[in-house]
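pinned: reference chain
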Amino acid sequence: MMLSPDQTETDLGSWTQSDPETVLNDLKGGCMSDDPGMDVMEPGGKIKSLNQAPLSREEKRRRRRATAKYRSAHATRERIRVEAFNVAFAELRKLLPTLPPDKKLSKIEILRLAICYISYLNHVLDV
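pinned: its structure tokens
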């Protein structure tokens, strides 16, 4: 390690005499000073600012939604929702008469055909 001209080995103190784990913990914990604007690391790796007002509900929500765990869970829920939506369209499609019966229909075509078929069935019941 290189020393500046005004620095001596005794100035290094704990850096030269501590074990590597202690030095690493000191680096993780950051510099602790009396400055009220400093951030400190809490146990568990969370950073806490000493000089900020409590977070608003919206800010807490934004921070929670920014985590990888939240995004992954949201993506999973969305996949399940879309899959259920597609299953419902497939079941509705099976109930509608078309020629040929295995013709591929878009979702909007399925809905329009269902509306027409329901209208037809109401007409048949009225007559």
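why pinned: The CA atoms of residues 56 and 62 lie 10 Å apart. Residues 68-95 form the longest helix (28 residues).
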